[in-house]
Design goal:
The structure holds two protein chains of two kinds. By secondary structure, chain A is α+β, with helices and mostly antiparallel strands. In chain A, 34% of the residues lie in helices and 13% in strands. Chain A has three helices and six strands. In chain A, the strands form three sheets. Chain A has a two-stranded antiparallel sheet. The relative contact order of chain A is 0.22. Chain B is elongated, with a radius of gyration of 25 Å. The two termini of chain B are 39 Å apart. Classes of the chains: A alpha+beta, B alpha+beta.
Chain lengths: 104, 282
């Protein structure tokens, strides 16, 4: 999935993707298997093997992979903070649009 | 939801309070949604009112504190949904009814107060029930061999493809036709607990097919009041009727106006979904 926006806000301005605690991760790769959006990547030769390759592919507010994680190694940013930030950006953009209109 | 009510008043032949309960009941029956139940006939032949009592909630109007009407309903095993006592209403208005039957301003005021009390509790009951719409119209578009349906109005969506539709302070939540087709045969619904409080974009359980697990991301904030128990035996209802019979969770809304800021209405979601489907191989 390559949506470039979420509720009108560019996806790369929204910080939402899994954070992996490698002290807990046991390399089972259940999360990789679970996520249909190619968020993760596995490199057998690297250490750690697991990597969040495409954070912006992650569906904003989806936390499903963290539930498949046995050792509980996956966390997400604070949802309320993220919501607040998205609303703030939308508000600022609307205000900016109005200003442009007013100047025209 | 029952739209009719059955009114069982005190017989009201000999005393003022009884007479007022009779007058209130007669005024109520001017509305076609109200069925009057005669206490004497009910006592004699309950079956005469069986149909009416099945179709509507029972409201009892007692005259005095002997409460003959309530006791009659109790003796016959009828479930009372609402109860008004004329003597108590008069007392609250500081009106002494006395024994003698009379028709004046005071008694008229009591009748009016009884009617208002019954009407307001009928409205309260209506607000405590989710009212399903009679029918829903859909817009459709196709992509390859798939046809996607989106209602034309009264549904709101987040970009996680979950919908909400509102009835008073209550709302139902489900997944869009797109999710249902993407998952294909849904085998299992894992609902939230009744009483759970949640914020907008919290998860409300999940649904599972042989292909994948889909997390239900709530389009609104609120409290879970019911889950669709019909899905325990028939999770395929989510496939067959994603916007109606396949609803997932019923909730009491906490701030829908605020939530709406981050929701699409039907035409906007229709457009969003068309773009999304064009970008993804379904």
């Amino acid at each position: 999935m390559s949506e470039s926006t979420f509720m009108g806000v560019e996806r790369d301005r929204i910080d939402w993707s899994p954070r992996i605690d490698f002290l807990k991760c046991n390399d089972c790769m259940d999360c990789v298997e679970f996520c249909p959006h190619q968020v993760f990547e596995v490199d057998e030769n690297a250490k750690p093997k697991l990597k969040v390759k495409n954070p912006n592919n992650c569906v904003v507010f989806c936390r499903a992979c963290s539930k498949t994680c046995g050792p509980d190694a996956i966390t997400f940013p604070d949802k309320a903070e993220t919501t607040k930030m998205i609303k703030a950006i939308r508000k600022a953009e609307k205000a900016a649009e109005k200003e442009v209109e007013a100047n025209e | 939801m029952s739209e009719t009510i059955c009114v069982l008043p005190c017989n009201g032949l000999d005393k003022c309070a009884g007479d007022l309960s009779r007058r209130a009941a007669l005024q109520l029956t001017q509305s076609e949604d109200v069925e009057l139940i005669c206490p004497v006939l009910l006592n004699q032949n309950k079956s005469r009112y069986e149909k009416a009592l099945e179709a509507g909630d029972l409201t009892v109007i007692d005259g005095c504190n002997t409460r003959c009407a309530s006791k009659l309903a109790g003796d016959l095993g009828l479930a009372i949904k609402d109860k008004v006592n004329v003597s108590e209403v008069a007392k609250a208005l500081d009106i002494k009814l006395g024994v003698e039957i009379r028709e004046d301003q005071e008694t008229q005021a009591v009748v009016q107060a009884v009617l208002e009390k019954i009407n307001s509790s009928v409205i309260d009951r209506a607000e405590s029930e989710f009212v399903e719409p009679e029918s829903i119209d859909y817009n459709t578009f196709s992509h390859g061999k798939f046809i996607f349906k989106v209602p034309t109005a009264n549904y709101f969506f987040n970009e996680n493809d979950c919908w909400v539709t509102v009835s008073g302070k209550l709302a139902r939540i489900g997944v869009s036709d797109y999710v249902q087709q993407n998952l294909s045969d849904i085998l299992y619904v894992d609902p939230p607990e009744i009483g759970d409080e949640f914020e907008q974009f919290d998860d409300l359980g999940s649904i599972e097919s042989s292909k994948a697990v889909f997390e239900i991301i709530s389009p609104v904030s609120g409290t879970v009041v019911a889950v669709n128990t019909g899905l325990n035996d028939a999770p395929e209802l989510v496939n067959e009727s994603p916007y109606e019979k396949g609803w997932l969770v019923e909730v009491r809304l906490s701030d829908f106006e605020e939530d709406q800021d981050l929701l699409h209405d039907c035409p906007a979601y229709f457009e969003f979904l068309q773009r999304k489907v064009a970008e993804v191989d379904v």
